[in-house]
């Protein structure tokens, strides 16, 4: 029963309150962080080239956006071709002992968009992401983990950039 009575007056149950809050959240446009509204021809994407971590991030972004990575070009609505992917790390500053204090990570790739028939939708574009972090010599293991997390965030940022640009291209082409 949705409404119970207490001393003759109606009282809402927990289920009714939870249902009401769920309806309010869905009505306000709430969606999970990282999820995109994908155009219909972008629900199935094939990524050609690129590293394993980049493919992993593409897979996660597509899953959170109700899409999927295609295993071949034939089933794909759009093909993302990755070229010249490179990850570089350089020392920005040294301590008095000659140990590195600060690093800069640079992730760069070129990509272009095509349809499954290999017709070019967008010419080659570049994504260039840079991050710097402090390398405390007392916590070397923790800093290795920090660098791995930063790299994953950079891969995710690159994927989000590519997906956003692809959405714009596909939506502009549909008009």
Describe it.
The chain has 175 residues and is α/β, with parallel strands linked by helices. The protein folds into 2 domains: 1-30; 39-174, Double Stranded RNA Binding Domain. The protein has helices at residues 14-27, 52-64, 140-174; strands at 3-6, 9-12, 44-48, 68-69, 78-94, 100-114, 120-134. It has a 5-stranded mixed beta sheet, with helices on one face. Helix 2 packs across helix 3 (140-174).
Query: Strand order, biggest sheet?
Result: 4-3-5-6-7
Low-pLDDT residue intervals, each spanning 5 or more residues = none
**Distance from first to last alpha carbon:** 49 Å
Write out the CATH superfamily name of the largest domain: Lipoprotein like domain
Name the overall outline.
Answer: flat
Fraction of residues in helices?
Answer: 25-40%
Instruction: Count the domains.
Output: 2
> What is the fold named in CATH at topology level of the largest domain?
Double Stranded RNA Binding Domain
Helical segment count: 3
Q: Give me the Rg, rounded.
A: 23 Å
Secondary-structure content class = alpha/beta
Task: Round the mean pLDDT to the nearest integer and report it.
Answer: 82
CATH class of the largest domain: Alpha Beta
Element order, helices and strands?
A: EEHEHEEEEH
Protein name: LPS-assembly lipoprotein LptE
InterPro entries: LPS_assembly_LptE
GO molecular function, one term: lipopolysaccharide binding
Main location: membrane
């Amino acid at each position: 029963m949705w409404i119970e009575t207490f001393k003759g007056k109606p009282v809402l149950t927990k289920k009714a309150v939870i249902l009401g809050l769920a309806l309010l959240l869905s009505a306000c446009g709430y969606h999970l962080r990282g999820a995109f509204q994908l155009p219909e021809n972008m629900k199935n994407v094939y990524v050609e080239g690129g590293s394993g971590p980049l493919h992993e991030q593409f897979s996660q972004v597509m899953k959170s956006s109700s899409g999927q990575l295609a295993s071949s070009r034939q089933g794909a609505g759009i093909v993302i071709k990755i070229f010249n992917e490179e990850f570089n790390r350089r020392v920005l500053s040294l301590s008095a002992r000659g140990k590195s204090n600060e690093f800069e990570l640079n992730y760069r790739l070129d990509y272009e968009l095509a349809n499954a028939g290999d017709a070019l939708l967008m010419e080659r574009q570049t994504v260039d992401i840079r991050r710097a972090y402090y390398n405390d010599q007392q916590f070397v293991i923790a800093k290795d983990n920090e660098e791995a997390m930063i790299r994953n965030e950079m891969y995710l940022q690159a994927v989000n950039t590519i997906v956003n640009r692809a959405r714009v291209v596909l939506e502009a082409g549909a008009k």
